[in-house]
Design goal:
- It is a single chain.
- The chain has 11 helices and 5 strands.
- It is of the alpha+beta class and 387 residues long.
- It has a 5-stranded mixed sheet with strand order 1-2-3-5-4.
- Helix 4 runs parallel beside helix 6, helix 6 crosses helix 9 and helix 8 runs parallel beside helix 9.
- The two termini are 43 Å apart.
């Protein structure tokens, strides 16, 4: 009973049933006219049949009026001695229409009214006994027609509810897909920023050093150029890694990206850039999830980059953990350059990374020092990352 248009919209089954009833109605009216002609009935019979045919034709728009009119005309036909079987069929079709297009209570009221009328007609006009099979069958058949109309209406409502749920699900899936695309674009932008920003800082510092030492100390200038070359290679490597991930859906996301195990090397890089850096790094757990591993590394990288750019040349880095949480704190005196509170995409990336691992991030300036503090709940992230 469930059909679809090519575009996926379900067909209203009630319309097909109404077309079937139209054919039944035309056949019933035709047979009734033939019976009137054979019986040589007067004008009253044709008038009753004509009114009943008009009422039947209007059943789609006025179902209650149609079923009432055809039932009354069926009784009138029986009263004047005509064969009312065809009129009775028109009434039953109108009753099904009431069940299909009107509320259930309305259909039940119409069923009781029509059934009572038919029962009285069977006893009064046809001379049947109250408990005769014909009298009871008339009421039972009327009830079946009403129930059929109600069942078709319920089926129609169920099919359309499924259709609406499918549309809602499709809309939600499209929205989720768009959200995932947006999140992936943000992640790519964040990774590219993290891959480039630190190494560009290294290149900038060593380029300035090479320029100053080129004539006075060629050896130091050459060393700075080597650092510039290594930083440029690092940028290329990390960008290639991001592009590889974009091109190959099967490639692991974090295979060659930096980890906390490389934190000492990162710290040494900033010391070579001239940042007076004091570190307190505890021995961290070995089962830290990869997402947290990368997020903390990038947080430290961005925090130290900001300390080098905007600070006065000194900074303190602390990394420690408890059984349930991992903490990172970077503190540096505020220099003369603009505060990183208000400029750059780095802070946005830091917040997004902490949000991705259910962590919290505090950025504050107090007593002339700028503080970056992150807290990550290891237990919750570990449970979430387990298959």
């Amino acid at each position: 009973m469930m059909h679809y248009f090519p575009r996926g919209q379900p067909v209203d089954l009630r319309l097909w049933i109404e077309i079937l009833f139209d054919a039944i109605g035309v056949a019933s009216v035709g047979l009734a006219l033939r019976g009137l002609a054979l019986e040589s009935s007067g004008a009253v019979g044709y008038i009753i049949l004509g009114i009943a045919a008009v009422a039947f034709a209007a059943r789609r728009w006025l179902p209650l009026t149609s079923v009432t009119a055809t039932a009354a005309l069926s009784l009138a036909a029986a009263a004047v001695g005509q064969n009312s079987i065809w009129m009775w069929l028109l009434t039953q079709a109108c009753l099904v229409t009431v069940g299909m297009w009107r509320r259930r209570r309305t259909a039940l009221v119409a069923c009781v009214t029509v059934g009572s009328g038919m029962y009285i007609s069977a006893i009064w006009a046809d001379g049947q006994l109250p408990l005769a099979p014909y009298s009871l069958l008339t009421m039972a058949w009327t009830a079946c027609m009403a129930v059929t109309g109600i069942a078709i209406r319920l089926h129609h409502d169920y099919i359309w509810s499924l259709h609406e749920r499918a549309l809602a699900l499709e809309h939600d899936q499209a929205r989720d897909l768009r959200q995932k695309v947006i999140e992936e674009r943000i992640r790519i932008a964040r990774d590219l920023h993290d891959a480039v920003a630190h190494n560009v800082t290294v290149i900038s510092v060593h380029a300035g050093s090479a320029e100053r030492q080129l004539d006075r100390d060629p050896a130091r200038a050459r060393a700075s150029l080597v650092e510039i070359r290594d930083a440029a290679r690092s940028i290329i490597t990390e960008i290639e890694e991001v592009l590889r991930i974009l091109r190959d859906d099967q490639s692991p996301l974090l295979t060659s990206l930096p980890r906390l195990a490389e934190l000492e090397g990162l710290v040494q890089t900033y010391r070579e850039l001239g940042l007076d850096l004091v570190t307190e790094i505890q021995h961290l757990p070995e089962d830290i999830p990869e997402t947290v591993d990368l997020a903390i590394y990038r947080l430290v990288q961005e925090g130290l980059t900001n300390a080098h750019r905007h600070g006065s040349g000194t900074a303190t880095l602390k990394v420690w953990s408890t059984p349930d949480e991992l903490f990172v704190e970077i503190v540096n005196p505020v220099g003369q350059s603009p505060s990183p509170h208000t400029t750059g995409w780095g802070l946005i990336g830091m917040r997004e990374r902490m949000a991705s691992v259910d962590g919290t991030l505090l950025l504050a300036t107090k007593n002339g020092s700028y503080t970056v503090r992150a807290e990550i709940p290891l237990a919750r992230v570990t449970r979430r990352d387990r298959p």
